[in-house]
Amino acid sequence: MADNPMLKFVALGQDYPDKRDAAERGHDFAEISRSFAVEKAEEQASRCSQCGVPYCSTHCPLHNHIPDWLRLTAEGRLREAYELSNTTSTMPEICGRICPQDRLCEGNCVIEFSGHGAVTIGSVEKFITDTAWKEGWVEPLVAGKPTGQSVGVIGAGPAGLTTAEYLRAAGHEVHVYDRHDRAGGLLTYGIPGFKLEKDVVMRRVNRLKDGGIVFHENFEVGRDATLDQLREKHDAILIATGVYKARGIKAPGVGTGGVVAALDYLTASNKASFGDAVPEHEDGSLLAAGKNVVVIGGGDTAMDCVRTAIRQGAKSVKCLYRRDRENMPGSQREVANAEEEGVEFVWLSAPVAFEGTDHVTGVKVTKMRLGQPDASGRRAPEPDPGSEFTLEADLVIKALGFDPEDLPKMFGSDELSVTRWGTLRVDHKTMMTSVDGVFAAGDIVRGASLVVWAIRDGRDVTEHMHRYLKAKAASGVKAGERVAA
């Protein structure tokens, strides 16, 4: 009987691909970790305990078949491992790079609980699909038998792209509308290259374009067409715009020059990485070079901002967060990466005013202390009287999260119902909005969340849309007409 290639977690330790030295990586936007060599990927995969109830899969929003493709990897059957990982995810190499595995699959690995350190699932997932691209195993998107029906997808982020891919494979004509000049949404313009190099996103987008999906870039619903006009053109619509409106800060001086929104800052940086002309870099308004930078927030967007500022040559970079390290919502791995690169964290601190007249010169800060738990169960931060101090700042970046934009007004469709949080209201049994034939998925429904949840929502809404389109075809209803209840 051949030796079992698995269950080697006692003899083999947890291992990650090597990270480039912080001094080296702090000067460019290339990804900070090299990919596994094949031997290391097989070795790490062989640590999987193949447990009967795989908590890694249970806690993955996509319910990826993680133990199965780890075993295939350990056995050297990489093509089969890729094909299996591809059955549940449209973007496994992207999730392998940017998912917070420490809170999802790896954080719930059984051998992590036993004290042996989780299998480094994300790194293996990235390796499998990067290998598939390199070896030519990633097959083109082939459209199914034409249905004669057309679908419009508003938003070219992970939810929209996932749905577009599946519906095209089902034989529908698919048009994707996006306000930016490149598809990908936050994958393209919100996440820096040191976490997700842009050719990784663009090769996915190009595969969809080659598969016959029509992209309408620089297209803004409400400006270039109303939602009703798109409904006349298509048999069904998906709204997957995400949430982009920056949460504000109520403090004196917040409108001072040099106090900017995180997404504006990150988008400018990513455009520059593509080689685009960026006026806000030329005039310095969204460039950190030579400046004292203060980033306000504790999530992954804040980590993206502080680490981008380091790479732009900031004089100093500080991150203000109103809670302590243990209560920070962002990935602890990202915090560690930022500290290695020279970011200073100012814990239990919050801004109370922004100093300067025409341009910000400093941030007045108060120390915070953690009081009683709030509605979420987390201890609520409260000001510590008499503890104010000032941090010098030439650029302040607000990274406090995102809210929905002004729907339904933005789309010119008063029929669209929204929740009290401004997200789109859907029937959760069908994922349809209050407007017939208009579905919604991703952050515009659930609020700011993870890319992996957007992919899951895109996968789920596909089934509902396909069922709706089949019923519409069977009843002989044309685009712009309603399906009888």
What this model shows, in words?
By secondary structure, the chain is an alpha/beta fold. It has three domains: 22-135, Alpha-helical ferredoxin (Fumarate Reductase Iron-sulfur Protein, Chain B, domain 2); 150-243 and 404-475, FAD/NAD(P)-binding domain (3-Layer(bba) Sandwich); 248-401, FAD/NAD(P)-binding domain (3-Layer(bba) Sandwich), CATH 3.50.50.60. It has 18 helices and 16 strands. It has helices at residues 22-25, 38-45, 55-58, 66-74, 78-85, 92-98, 110-113, 121-135, 158-169, 186-189, 198-210, 227-233, 262-273, 279-282, 300-311, 332-340, 443-446, 451-475, and strands at residues 150-154, 173-177, 214-216, 236-239, 245-246, 259-261, 292-296, 316-320, 344-346, 349-355, 362-373, 379-383, 389-392, 395-398, 402-403, 438-440. The strands form four sheets. It has a five-stranded parallel sheet, sandwiched between helices. Strand 1 (150-154), helix 9 (158-169) and strand 2 (173-177) form a beta-alpha-beta unit. The radius of gyration is 24 Å and the shape is globular. The N and C termini lie far apart (61 Å).
Identify the notable features of this structure and list them briefly.
single chain, 485 residues, alpha/beta, Fumarate Reductase Iron-sulfur Protein, Chain B, domain 2, FAD/NAD(P)-binding domain, 5-stranded parallel beta sheet, globular
